Amino acid sequence: MAYLLFNAGSNSNHQLSPIDEDFAEFKFVSSFESSCQISTGGNHTLILSNRRVYGAGLNDCNQLGLAGHSISTLTKLDWLSSLYPNHQTTRILASWSTSFFFLESNTLPPLLISVGDSGFGCRGVADVASTHPHSPINLPLHNHALIHANSSFRHIIVILRHLHTNTYNVFGWGASRKGQLSPANSGKPFLSTPHLLLSTQTPIFSARTGREHTILHSADGLIGWGSNTHGQLSLGAFTRVLDYGCTWRGTVVYDALPQTLPFSLPQPPPSLNWQLAANTPSSPPQTTPSGPSAGMNTATSA
């Protein structure tokens, strides 16, 4: 079975295709023999298929770990297997100009590797100037399972579950001034290494990040941190979340209809009401009972 890759949008740094043009509509680019993970940064693309990682697009900050300012075609990132021959890449993540690779092994602890822009602490490693460009991030992966990771412009969230206590620990690094790395870190320009932001026995399933806000999905509902200048943290009414996401300064929630909403649902136009009525199967006419048995249940015996 072939898996087909289609792209559309800006292609200024060949993050979609080697063709020197933007795509106004989806176009076929490549095919893969197995399913893919796809993660996109500001101007670069990562694809993971059959444990092999490919990258294309802007490489000005070494976000692809390859030689050259930009990579015009999907290129296999062989340096991962060369540097870590006992590990295999199982997850990928791209932020604006930084890339992350989660590596697992049958004999060694897992690793989370970062490459690319270190501004605002995005790489998650201390003393970047003297650190190897592919150094692992300091996270307790030897006794935790990776549940989810997400990043956007300049901050990264990683959710881990302790293997013995089943405690859910949320770590984060990067830009923090607006409180997107928890209220406790509000006002700090950035965190250059992973900090523990939340530890709880309540399951936390996933995270989404906007430019200056973070949404966590827990068993108790949604948790919001960071900027609320556009109401992106108004989450109290959503309790049965099916899916959700963050835009630059907004939040989108796909929710089973709650009992109460923080807003009024718009009424459908009269034409739609008419169509709904016209498509509703008609019921047999009801007759109004009369006589002594009116309003009573009666039984007839033979």
Automatic annotation (TrEMBL):
Species of the source: Wallemia ichthyophaga (strain EXF-994 / CBS 113033)
Coiled coil regions in record: none
Superkingdom as given in the UniProt entry: Eukaryota
Cross-referenced Gene3D superfamilies: Regulator of chromosome condensation 1/beta-lactamase-inhibitor protein II (2.130.10.30)
PROSITE patterns: RCC1_3
Region (Disordered): 272-302
One MF term in the entry's GO annotations: guanyl-nucleotide exchange factor activity
Protein name per UniProt: Uncharacterized protein
Ranges for the RCC repeats: 168-220
One matching Pfam family: RCC1_2
InterPro entries in alphabetical order: Ran_GTPase-activating, RCC1/BLIP-II, Reg_chr_condens
